[in-house]
Amino acid sequence: MKKVLITGAAGFIGFHLCQSLLKRGDIVVGIDNLNDYYDVELKRARLSLILENNNFTFYKMSIQDKDAVSALFKSEGFDVVVNLAAQAGVRYSLLNPYSYIDSNIYGFINILEGCRHNHVEHLVFASSSSVYGANTNMPFSVHNNVDHPVSLYAATKKSNELMAHAYSSLYKLPCTGLRFFTVYGPWGRPDMALFLFTRAILEDKPIDVFNYGKMQRDFTYIDDIIEGVVRVIDKIPVANKNWSGDNPDPATSYASYRLYNIGNNNPVELTKFIETIEVCLGKRAIKNFLPLQAGDVPATYADINDLVKDIGFKPSTPLEKGITEFIKWYREYYRV
């Protein structure tokens, strides 16, 4: 049994992770600022389900609040910290860049400082497939250089990886970064494609199809993401004894630091994704075809060899099953 802090506990991934850890008997403390980036009532509905468990404690708090975060770490004494709190979204970063610096940079340093000063055994933090940016060598490997982000969101996530490595090196803090690939499923975010498309199709409204439908995404079902995160929590990284500064491996280190992709390892074209939603809904979409948007990349595709080798897990949920489960939840939640 571990005592785990989950930041962003009312978020999509945070909610599911809280449920999974509580189910296996861990003590979970969750924090979230419940901001209005998307529907706060959806966040509250997620929270209400977790709060039914006596092993869960929630604090409404922002990771940007240095004093509050510091006090929380001192009073609770965590074994593990999972940082999922962040300002998400590639396109929103074009409109409100400062929120990404405030949350993803300033907020993350508060988490690192809390871990450093309170003997946390393992920091697991969310990165993103967006860090691959202008890379076109597919599938994306954690061993490849990722120095060409094409959005500020991606740049902040790459910054998180660098900051965590510095703390791992300086203060012997074991850190694992997880690059998530297009997560979807029940209780998902309203700003994500599956949610947007489902709502629009049911309301007979057009959907925006960027890059004229030629986008490819490595859609990864939420249950697979959670299984990967839970397994990583229990796998504290160790130094790579073969790491060399002459030929540095970005995914490992002389410090206790590791990076993993968690993706379905199966890119799907956006047109196929939409067709699958149409079949599950029994209704056709009205499509508004548009060019590639600034900050977006045409394709993502996860190399998960390291995840399979080190963690013993490979995401495997078929797209059809995942979309069916989401639409089932959507109809029940919104009474459609």
Q: Would you give an account of this structure?
A:
- With 336 residues, the protein is α/β, with parallel strands linked by helices.
- It has 11 helices and 13 strands.
- The chain has helices spanning 12-23, 40-50, 66-76, 92-95, 97-117, 152-171, 193-202, 222-233, 270-281, 305-311, 319-334; strands at 3-7, 27-32, 56-60, 80-83, 122-128, 175-180, 183-184, 206-209, 216-217, 220-221, 257-262, 268-269, 286-289.
- Helix 1 crosses helix 8 (222-233), helix 3 packs parallel to helix 5 and helix 9 crosses helix 11 (319-334).
- The longest helix has 21 residues, at 97-117.
- The mean pLDDT is 96.
Helix and strand sequence: EHEHEHEHHEHEEHEEEHEEHEHH
Mean pLDDT: 96
Oligomer: single chain
The side-by-side strand order for the widest beta sheet comes to 3-2-1-4-5-6-11
The dominant shape is globular
What's the gyration radius in Å? Answer: 19 Å
Uncertain residue segments = none
Structural class: alpha/beta
Q: Tell me roughly what share of residues is in helical segments.
A: 40-55%
Overall strand count? 13
Number of helices: 11
What gap, in angstroms, lies between the N and C termini? 40 Å
